[in-house]
TrEMBL record, chains A, B:
SUPFAM superfamilies: Winged helix' DNA-binding domain (SSF46785). InterPro entries: ArsR-like_HTH, HTH_ArsR_DNA-bd_dom, HTH_MetalResp_TranReg, WH-like_DNA-bd_sf, WH_DNA-bd_sf. Signal peptide: none annotated. Residues 27-121 form the HTH arsR-type domain. The keyword tRNA-binding does not apply. It comes from the Bacteria. Pfam families: HTH_5. This is Metalloregulator ArsR/SmtB family transcription factor. Gene3D superfamilies: Winged helix-like DNA-binding domain superfamily/Winged helix DNA-binding domain (1.10.10.10). Keywords: DNA-binding, Transcription, Transcription regulation. The lineage of its organism: Bacteria, Bacillati, Actinomycetota, Actinomycetes, Micrococcales.
Amino acid sequence: MTTTALELAPAAPASGTCCAPLVREAADPAAAADLARSFKALGDPTRVRLLSIVAAHDGGEACVCELTEPIGLSQPTVSHHLKILVDAGLLTREQRGKWAYYSVVPGSLDRLGALLSEAAG
Amino acid sequence: MTTTALELAPAAPASGTCCAPLVREAADPAAAADLARSFKALGDPTRVRLLSIVAAHDGGEACVCELTEPIGLSQPTVSHHLKILVDAGLLTREQRGKWAYYSVVPGSLDRLGALLSEAAG
DNA sequence: AGATCGGATCGAAGAACTTCGATGCGTTGT
DNA sequence: ACAACGCATCGAAGTTCTTCGATCCGATCT
C-alpha cells in the first residue's frame, strides 16, 4: 500500500464539489420499489412472528386457529397479516376442508437475503 | 422415498385437532420486534434507493447534496430518511467540515440476511 | 335442512408514516 | 463581522397502516 492514490482520494479539501463520483449503477426506482414492497411485509413484529411460528410447525405449515392464540391478537387481524404475507410471496394458503393452512414459500427468504447483498454489495 | 411416514403425516382427516405440533421454538416477541425494526427501515422505496446510491459511490460514502437530486425529494425529507437508516444501524453519519457524509455499515445487510434465514429456516 | 365452526371480508377508529416549507445551527468564505 | 452555504430540526397536512367488532361465506356435523 503506497500513498500513490492520496492525491486524488480526498477530493476537494475545502470548497468545490463535495462527493466522489459513482463507481457503479444504483438500483433503479422500479427495482427499489419491488424490494421495498417485500421488506415492508416483514416490517411488522406481528408478521415476523407469524412467519416464525408457521416455520416452527411440523411440515412447515399451520392453520389460523393455531396462530391466533400465541400472537394474542384478534382473528380478523391475524387473517389480515397473513394475507399481506401471502401477497408478498412469503406464505402460501391452502384450504383443506374446514381449515386454511399457511406454509412458508421455500427459498423466498433466501432470495430476499440475496437481493439484499446485491443491492448494496 | 418410501411411504412409511404417511400414516402420521396427514394428521386428522376430518374433525379433531387441525394442526401439527411445533417442532422447534418460534422467535420470541422481542427478537421479532428487533428484526421488524430493521426491515421496516428497508420498507420504503426511497430508503432502498438511498442505500443503493450511497453504496454505488466511490469509497462507499456520499453527502446529502449528492443524494437529494437523484431521489427527487426535498432536502428535509432526504435527511429524515437518512436518519431512519442511521437509527436502524444500516448507515453511519460523519460530519467533515461543511458536509455530512453517509456510508453503509459494513456487513449490516449481510447480518440481516443471515437473521432472515435463521428466523424461518 | 338446520346448526355449528373456521376463516375471510367489511367499515371504522386511532396511531404511525411520508412529505413539505419554514426555521435554526454550525462551518466556510469575504 | 457579516453573508452564504450545507444540513438538521420543527410543526403541519395528507396518506397509509394497524386493530377491532360485526358480518358473511363454506364446509362439517346432527
